[in-house]
Amino acid sequence: MLKRLLECHRAPHRLPELPSLRQVLATTAGSFLGIAILSGLTRHAGVDLLMAPFGATCVLLFATPDTALAQPRNVIGGHVLASAIGLTAQHLADLHGAIGLAAVVTIAIVAMQLTRTVHAPAGADPLVILLKGHTLGWSFLLTPVLTGAVILVLLAYLVNNARNTEKWPRYWI
C-alpha cells in the first residue's frame, strides 16, 4: 500500500489549461458587476443583498460556469436550503459552540447532497447566520439570500451566454 501511495505521489500532475482572454474578461465583467450590483443595491436602495458567500458564488458562476456547482438549481437552491437550516438552528437552540456550528454546517451539506443542490459557497451560510451575533429574522431568506442569488444567476445567464458558444446553464431544475 505504501508503494502505491508513493507512486501516486510521484505521478505527474497536470495543471488546468490557462483560460482564454475572452474567458478572463467574462469572469472579470461578471464577478465585478455581480458584486457591484449587489453592493450598490444594498447601499442605495436600502435592501440588504450582499453576504460574503456570494463572492465565492461569483467564482463558480463566472470562472467555472460549466460545473454542476455553478448551475442555477445549485446556486439558488443551495443558498436557500443552507440558510433555512442555519436560521432554523438559530431559532431552535444556542449553537455557537464548536460542535453546534459543525453540526449545522454538516446538516446543510448533507441536505444539499440529498436534494441535489450542492453549492460549495452555501456551506458557509449557516456560519454567517450563527456568527452574526444577533437573531436574524426569516426575511433573511428573501433578502439577501434568495434575491441576491437570483440576481447573480440572471447576470451569469447574460455574461455566460455572451461569451460561450454553448448555452448556459446546462440545466435549471
From TrEMBL:
Domain of life: Bacteria
InterPro entries associated with the record: HPP, TM_HPP
Name of the protein: HPP transmembrane region domain-containing protein
TM helices/strands, residue ranges: 98-115, 136-159
HPP transmembrane region domain location: 18-169
PANTHER family membership: TRANSMEMBRANE PROTEIN DDB_G0269096-RELATED
Keyword annotations: Membrane, Transmembrane, Transmembrane helix
